[in-house]
Specification:
Elements lengths: L10 E2 L10 E5 L5 E5 L7 E4 L1 H13 L7
Antiparallel strand pairs: 1-2, 2-3, 3-4
């Protein structure tokens, strides 16, 4: 499956201390969520369905790492 990420509005977590070595996230129009390496914005991105993203962020909360994305 190919998803066009051209118009994605990427952002970093507000907890990103120095703004380096982070991941960036984009909530896509299709309801999917894109994740990419901030050091390589033109590189590959992972794309997750809404349920997958919810499960991932719930796992972070359960582990004590509150996501801010």
């Amino acid at each position: 499956m190919s998803i066009d990420l051209t118009d994605a509005a990427w952002f970093k977590s507000s907890r990103s201390a120095s703004g380096k070595e982070c991941v960036e996230v984009a909530h896509l129009r299709s309801g999917m969520v894109g994740v990419r390496d901030s050091k390589n914005p033109s590189g590959a991105a992972l794309v997750f369905g809404p349920g997958e993203w919810d499960t991932f962020t719930a796992g972070l909360r359960a582990a004590g790492s509150e996501p801010t994305v």
